[in-house]
Amino acid sequence: MGKMLMCPCGEQLVGRTDDEFVSAVDAHLQSKHDGRTYPGSMILQMAKPFPDDQIPD
Ligand SMILES: [Zn+2]
């Protein structure tokens, strides 16, 4: 099961693994939100489960 987070800006961030998910959120924050960062543990707490087969390649 992957993880998903709907960013307040409207972008849906997903990952197949915790590492991939945290990296995706981090990269999004860096590029779209002035380099903001959150600890990986906090990002994972905000995440919702997301079916693997709906994650785009
Ligand atoms: Zn965003």
Count of discrete alpha- or pi-helical segments spanning 4 or more residues: 2
Average pLDDT confidence is 95
| Heteromolecules bound | zinc ion
Distance between the termini: 15 Å
**Shape by Cα distribution:** globular
Overall number of strands: 3
Strand content: 15-25%
Low-confidence stretches: none
Helix content: 25-40%
Overall SS class: alpha+beta
Query: Measured on Cα atoms, how large is the radius of gyration?
Result: 10 Å
Count the domains: 1
Q: Trace the largest sheet across and list its strands.
A: 2-1-3
**In this structure, how is the largest beta sheet organized?**
3 strands, antiparallel
Secondary-structure element order, as H and E? EEHHE
Describe the structure concisely for a colleague.
By secondary structure, this protein is α+β, with helices and mostly antiparallel strands.
Topology record:
Layout: E1 2-6, E2 12-15, H1 18-32, H2 40-46, E3 48-50
The protein binds zinc ion (ZN).
Structural account:
The protein is an alpha+beta fold. The protein has one domain (2-54). The protein is 39% helix and 21% strand. The protein is built from 2 helices and 3 strands; from the N terminus they run ββααβ. It has a 3-stranded antiparallel beta sheet with strand order 2-1-3. The protein is globular, with a radius of gyration of 10 Å. Bound molecules: zinc ion.
Question: What are the key terms here?
Answer:
binds zinc ion; 3 strands; 57 residues; 2 helices; alpha+beta; globular; single chain
